[in-house]
Design brief:
This protein has eight helices and 17 strands. With 270 residues, the chain is of the alpha/beta class. The chain has two domains: 119 residues, Nucleotidyltransferase, domain 5, CATH 3.30.420; 110 residues, Nucleotidyltransferase, domain 5, CATH 3.30.420.40. Strands 3, 4, 5, 6, 7 and 10 form a six-stranded mixed β-sheet that branches. Strands 13-12-11-16-17 form a five-stranded mixed β-sheet. The radius of gyration is 18 Å and the shape is globular. Bound molecules: beta-D-glucopyranose (BGC). It comes from Corynebacterium suranareeae.
Length: 270
């Protein structure tokens, strides 16, 4: 079923004179090691077929990454709208930061880039944690739809999404907040645990410190923790000692792709 909508964000650089809202979408999640894409059932948040994954090119320049994105779209034989995540601040479809990606992304008009490679379709690019937040708010734990929740993705860096009754406040970048003289993501990302071979006890102490700082400043109703490490939550969740409730995210590694597909479908373009 295809429902046509006439609504569109005024500033969004998207092709949306007559937006399309379908039950199937396509999301692409650009990460440091892999670029992943899948068709998404927008009613259930499930993938429709197998996820396609191609290694992130090195160096991961905008042009090289866009070529891989085009390859995934072509392999999937998808001709509809595409939502794309980036581990970067994205405002008015311009990438404004590059903490864990090639610095040449800074200042890139990401809509122009992907439009050139994917041609003539609706495209939305957004921050990866923001995409995960949108997906969790719709398909994950109901706590993400109530009150002021903060979703954190713990991976190479720390990504964040602020959700107020399930609505997103984009580009919050809590991973770069200074905690104890260090950027939070240098203290407690999943990569830091792995690279330094930290025990669950040592790493959760660091995470606790970071969460306490966020708690002090934002007083959220809940922290929702995503990223691969959320799969092992029984190892570290019981070791945390903060006032705020902490729950693991539910969509796991699906969240970025699902959120990207939802964002373009809803014509959200931060
Ligand atoms: C980036 C964020 C991103 C996070 C998770 C951070 O280093 O600055 O934009 O959301 O990593 O990938």
């Amino acid at each position: 079923m295809v429902v046509f909508l006439k609504t569109c964000l005024p500033k969004a650089k998207v092709i949306c004179t007559l937006g399309r809202m379908t039950e199937t979408g396509f999301g692409i999640d650009i990460g440091g090691s892999g670029i992943k894409g899948a068709r998404v059932n927008l009613k259930t948040g499930e993938f429709i077929d197998d996820r396609i994954k191609i290694a992130t090119p090195k160096p991961a320049t905008p042009e090289a990454v866009a070529e891989v994105v085009a390859e995934i779209i072509s392999q999937a034989d998808w001709d509809g709208p595409v939502g794309i995540t980036l581990p970067s601040v994205v405002r008015e479809q311009i990438a404004l930061s590059a903490a864990n990606i090639d610095k040449s992304w800074i200042g890139t008009d990401v809509h122009e880039l992907f439009d050139r490679h994917l041609g003539g379709r609706e495209i939305t690019v957004l921050n990866d944690a923001d995409a995960a937040g949108i997906a969790e708010a719709t398909f994950g734990d109901p706590v993400a739809r109530e009150g002021a929740s903060i979703l954190l993705t713990l991976g190479t860096g720390i990504g964040s999404a602020f959700l107020i009754d399930g609505q997103l406040f984009p580009n919050t970048e809590l991973g770069h907040m200074i905690v104890d003289g260090e950027e939070a993501e240098h203290l407690a990302s999943a990569a830091v645990k792995e690279n330094n071979d930290l025990s669950w006890k040592k790493w959760s102490k660091r995470l606790n410190k970071v969460l306490k700082e966020y708690e002090k400043l934002f007083s959220p109703s809940v922290f929702i923790i995503g990223g691969g490490i959320s799969r092992k939550h029984e190892k570290w969740l019981p070791l945390l000692d903060i006032e705020t409730a902490v729950v693991p995210a539910q969509l796991r590694n699906r969240a970025g792709i699902v959120g990207a597909a939802m964002a373009v479908n809803k014509h959200l373009a931060p």
